[in-house]
Write a structure and sequence with these properties.
Layout (H helix, E strand, L loop, with lengths): L2 E3 L6 E3 L2 E3 L12 H13 L4 E5 L6 H10 L8 E6 L1 E3 L5 E4 L3 H15 L4 E6 L8 H13 L3 E7 L3 H10 L2 E7 L11 H8 L2 E5 L34 H18 L3 H10 L5 E5 L4 H7 L9 H10 L12 H4 L7
Parallel strand pairs: 3-4, 3-12, 4-5, 5-8, 8-9, 9-10, 10-11, 11-12
Antiparallel strand pairs: 1-2, 6-7
Helix pairs in contact: 1-2, 3-4, 4-5, 5-6, 7-8, 7-10
C-alpha cells in the first residue's frame, strides 16, 4: 500500500482511506458482520486511515469500529473523527455545536465508544455559525496539548475559515467532497490548502455510488437511504447524470478498468496531497476500489476523462437544499 502525508504537519496514511459511515447510517439496511469483515480486509490490504463521525447512527459507527479494531496495534491505523453535528432520536439533524465545552464533551464520549486513549485527526463536521472557528479549534488544540488528539482537521469549510483555523493551530487536512462531478473546491479551497501546506481527504469520490458504474435510473433506495432525498438522484436529474457515467464507462473500458476504479484514480491523480476515501460497505466493493491505486493516468487519459465528464456537467446539488447552506463551497 502506498502512503501519502496529510499536509506539512499531518500523519503519513494509506493512499486510500476507508469511510465507515455507510456501515451504520445513510444508505439503508446494514450488515454488522460484513462491515467488520470489510474493516479487517481493509487493514490487511494496508489501509490505515479510517474515517467516522460520532453522529453516524448516534455512536453506532464508533462502537462498530471499536469491535472491528479490537486487538489491533493502535499505531497501525489512524482514526479520523468528525464531531459537532446534532441529531435527535429520530435521526433528524439539528445543526452543529462548536462550543469549546461541547468539543471536549464530544471527545470524551468518542474516546470511550472507540475504546482508545487518543484520536489521530479530530475535526468539526460542519461550521457552527454561532461560534467563531477560533474557539472551536482552540478547544481541539487544548486536547492536542493534553494528548487526547494528535492532529486538527477541518470539514466542509471555505478558504477564509481554513485560514482562520490554521492561524490558531496547524491544520493537517480538510475533509471535503471532491469527485468528477463535485469540483467546487478547485476554485479557491484547493489553492488555499496548497498555499498553507494542508492536505485533503476527499470523500464522495464515487458520489454516493452515482458514478460507481453500479447505479441505475430505476433503482429504488432502501428505507432510510439518503439518496432518496439527494437532488442528483432525483427523477429528471439521475438519467442525465448516468449519461455521464456511460461516457466514463467507455474511457474505463479502453483503460481496462471499472468505472469506479477510474473515478477513484482520477481523484488520486489530482495531487499527492489528496487522499480519496471510499465508503465501501462490503468486501466486494473494497476489492474493486483497491486496484485504483495502481492505475496510472497520463495526460491524454485525463483529458479523455474531462471530455467525458466536464466540470459542472452534473445536474442537481450534492446535498438537499436544507443542507447546502452549511457547506463552505457548492457543487
Amino acid at each position: 500500500m502506498r502512503t501519502r502525508t496529510l499536509g506539512n504537519t499531518g500523519p503519513a496514511v494509506s493512499a486510500l482511506g476507508l469511510g465507515a459511515m455507510g456501515m451504520s447510517d445513510a444508505y439503508g439496511e446494514t450488515d454488522r458482520a460484513e462491515s467488520i469483515a470489510t474493516v479487517h480486509a481493509a487493514l490487511e490490504a494496508g489501509v490505515t486511515l479510517i474515517d467516522t463521525g460520532d453522529f453516524y447512527a448516534m455512536g453506532h459507527n464508533e462502537l462498530l469500529l471499536a469491535e472491528a479494531l479490537r486487538g489491533r496495534d493502535r499505531d497501525s491505523y489512524q482514526l479520523s473523527v468528525k464531531f459537532g453535528a446534532l441529531r435527535g432520536p429520530d435521526g433528524e439533524f439539528g445543526g452543529a455545536d462548536g462550543r469549546p465545552e461541547a468539543v471536549k464533551n464530544f471527545l470524551a464520549y468518542s474516546l470511550t465508544r472507540l475504546g482508545t486513549d487518543h484520536i489521530d485527526i479530530y475535526r468539526p463536521a460542519r461550521l457552527d455559525p454561532a461560534v467563531p472557528i477560533e474557539e472551536t479549534v482552540g478547544a481541539v488544540k487544548e486536547m492536542i496539548d493534553a494528548g487526547y488528539v494528535r492532529h486538527l482537521g477541518l470539514s466542509e469549510v471555505d478558504a477564509a475559515t481554513i485560514r482562520r483555523a490554521h492561524a490558531v493551530h496547524p491544520v493537517a487536512d480538510l475533509q471535503i467532497e471532491y469527485s468528477l462531478i463535485s469540483r467546487a473546491v478547485e476554485a479557491e479551497v484547493l489553492p488555499t490548502l496548497r498555499e498553507l501546506g494542508i492536505g485533503m481527504t476527499a470523500y464522495g469520490v464515487l458520489s454516493r455510488g452515482l458514478i460507481s458504474g453500479h447505479w441505475s435510473a430505476d433503482r429504488a433506495g432502501a428505507p432510510g437511504d439518503f439518496r432518496a432525498f439527494s437532488p442528483r438522484f432525483s427523477e429528471g436529474n439521475v438519467a442525465h447524470n448516468l449519461t455521464l457515467v456511460e461516457a466514463l464507462r467507455r474511457v474505463a473500458e479502453a483503460k481496462g478498468c471499472t468505472v469506479a476504479q477510474l473515478a477513484i484514480a482520477w481523484a488520486a491523480a489530482q495531487g499527492e496531497d489528496i487522499v480519496p476515501l471510499v465508503g465501501a460497505r462490503t468486501r466486494d466493493r473494497l476489492a474493486e476500489a483497491l486496484p485504483a491505486l495502481e492505475l496510472e493516468l497520463g495526460a491524454d487519459e485525463l483529458a479523455e476523462i474531462e471530455k467525458a465528464v466536464p466540470p459542472g456537467a452534473a445536474r442537481g446539488d450534492r446535498y438537499p437544499t436544507a443542507f447546502m447552506s452549511s457547506l463552505g463551497v457548492g457543487n
